[in-house]
Amino acid sequence: MQLLRDVAHERGPPLAVAKADELARISATEKAALRRKFEERLGSDQQATYDDLRWGKREF
Fold first, then answer.
1. Which of 4, 8, 10, 27 is most buried, judged by most C-beta within 10 A?
2. pTM of the entire predicted model
């Protein structure tokens, strides 16, 4: 009940949850760097993304 009251009072997630979410976010630049690092370490290129499948940019 306390959690529901907090959500209703803040009109969204409680401040602690919102702050944790903000701190956990990864920027587009950081995501690209992670992808490159995975490709480098695994010796493989990214094959496709969800958007590729969703919008028909690539076939699987």
1. 10
2. 0.48
